[in-house]
Specification:
By secondary structure, this protein is of the alpha+beta class. The protein is 22% helix and 30% strand. The structure holds uracil. The site of uracil (URA) has 8 residues, from helix 6.
Length: 241
């Protein structure tokens, strides 16, 4: 059965920073199985012991999973000295759990970004071997032509000695020019470079889906919610690999 130091247990649950947690423990605000414990180094069993802070039971959850509707203008990073990052959109109690973005979207791209503290979950979504599909909606400056559908299907050359894997292109409208594109990889500026290869520039880009997980359209840019157990299990069960 997993055992943890009491201060780590509470810090991992996001209740406060490690040093604040130690202070709370030393002051007698924390109990283990109804007995006050003042040593932050006390080991507790995550699945058995009942830990309370100021009388409120704090259950242990190792992993957390969120979907964010990433807004334009924030960078996909965990921290930056001058620019706002996607993690700045999350409160401290979630950030303290050691969450990070799964993959990246460009600063000017919006839409679905997954945030977790589970490295294996992230690896399963990002590994090129898994080829997880990703769906984007693009607003273009011009119409690349019907033949771009076939070119995408065959794989377009996007520079740097690289030809993109076959991708699905579907036009939604021609005025303005809007398209859906589904890719199975995530090279730097991939979608923008693919459209450039067929003579169009991307004006706006939004990610709608990763694997079988769709962006919840009720989330406004900048808003997030936890993944449902069903959404998480779609990744864990490997249904889209
Ligand atoms: N392709 C791009 O060009 N940009 C993104 O942010 C994601 C995919």
């Amino acid at each position: 059965m997993p055992k943890l130091r009491l201060d780590k247990y509470l810090k991992d649950q996001g209740v406060a920073s490690r040093s604040e947690v130690r202070e709370l423990i030393r002051k007698g605000f924390v109990s283990v199985n109804n007995a006050v414990v003042k040593d932050p180094g006390t080991h507790v069993k995550t699945e058995e012991d009942i830990i309370s802070l100021k009388g409120v039971q704090i259950d242990y959850r190792e992993f957390v999973y969120y979907m964010l509707n990433k807004p334009k203008g924030v960078i996909t990073a965990t921290e930056d000295k001058s620019l706002k990052t996607v993690l700045d959109l999350f409160p401290d109690e979630i950030r303290r759990r050691g969450v990070f973005p799964v993959g990246r979207l460009d600063k000017d791209t919006e839409g679905l970004l997954l945030i977790t503290n589970n490295g294996i979950f992230a690896h399963n979504l990002l590994s090129p071997k898994k080829g997880v599909k990703k769906l984007y909606e693009a607003l273009l400056d011009s119409f690349p032509g019907e033949d771009a559908i076939e070119k995408f299907e065959k794989g377009v050359y996007i520079g740097d000695n690289y030809t993109a894997l076959p991708a699905k292109l579907q036009y939604i409208s021609t005025n303005p020019v809007k398209a859906l594109v589904e890719i199975h990889e995530g090279k730097f500026h991939q979608v923008k470079r693919m459209f450039r290869a067929v003579g169009a520039s991307v004006i706006e880009l939004k990610r709608l889906r990763i694997g079988d997980i769709w962006l919840d359209e009720s989330l406004k840019p900048g808003e997030f919610r936890e993944l449902t157990p069903e959404e998480i299990s779609r990744v864990s069960r490997g249904r889209f690999f």
